[in-house]
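Reminder to self: keep the SMILES exactly as supplied, no canonicalising. Ligand is S-adenosylmethionine.
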Amino acid sequence: MSKIHDFILNGLDLKNKIILDAAVGAGVSTYFWAKAIHEQGGTSKIICVDNDLPEIWKERIKRRLGEYSRYIELKEADIFDLGFIEDESIDIVNCDDTIVFLNPKPLKLLSALKEFARILKPGGDLIITSEIPIETLDNPENEGQWKRWNLAKAIYKLKGETWSTEPVPEELRVALELLGFNVCAEKIFPSRKNFNHKEVMDEWKNLILKDIKEIPWNDDLKSALIKEVNKVYEKVMNDRYLMNPAIYVLKSRKIIKEGI
Ligand SMILES: C[S@@+](CC[C@H](N)C(=O)[O-])C[C@H]1O[C@@H](n2cnc3c(N)ncnc32)[C@H](O)[C@@H]1O
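C-alpha cells returned for the bound complex:
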C-alpha cells in the first residue's frame, strides 16, 4: 500500500460501514479502500460518485478493482447535490484529489463541504486528500511542472472556462471547523520527482493543442501559444522528470452535538 493510503486508512474501522467516495475518477484510491474493506471482513460498501461517469469508465474502474469491485456501487452524481443520499446516513466520506474541482469560485467549496456534513452521521469521518500547488519558482526543480500547469490554466481561461484554485490546508481547516468538523490528524507528503514524465507530457500536449484550437483567435496568435507549449514540453524532456507537488491529507470528524 502507498504511504498516503497507509496514513488515510490507519485506525479506521471499516466493518459495517457505508462510505462515500467523492469522486471516484479512475478509482485509484477506491482500490485501496475496497481492499481494506475486504481485509476487515468484507461487511462495508462504498458508494462511488462522479459527475462524469460513462459506462466505459465504470467498466475500467471495475476491472481495476477486480474481486474487490463487489464492495462498490458506481453512480453518476454531482457532489454539490447528493439528494439521493439521506441525511446522516454515511459513516465516512473519502474525498481524494477532487477538492480542487469543487473550488471554482470563492465560497463554492463550502457548499460541497456542507453537503458532506449533511449526509455524514454525527461522529462520521471526512478525509480529504489534495495537492499543495507549486506557488513560486524558488526551487528550479519545480519549473517544468509550474510552467505546465500555468500555461494550461491560462489557455483554459482564454477558452472562457473556469479553472479552479487548489485550496491550501489552512483554508480547508477553517472551512471544516466552520461547518462543525474537528480536524483529528493531518500530514503532508513531500513533493517527488515523477519519471513517468513522457507519458504525462504527451497526454498534456495532446489535450492542450485541442484546447488551443477552440480559442477564438487568429492563427498567428494561436501559433505563438503552440510555440510556448512546445518549449515547455522540451524543457521537461530535457529535465527528464516532472516534480509532482506535495500532497496533504486532512482527517476530520463531524462533531457530535450534545443534547441532540
Ligand atoms: C482527479 S479525479 C479523482 C481521483 C480519484 N479519487 C482516484 O483516486 O482515482 C477528480 C474527479 O472529480 C470529478 N468531479 C469534479 N467535479 C465534480 C462534481 N462537482 N461532482 C462529482 N464529481 C466531480 C471529475 O469528473 C474527476 O473524475
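Points to follow up:
The mean pLDDT is 94.
The domain at 1-132+168-190+245-260 is CATH 3.40.50.150 (Rossmann fold).
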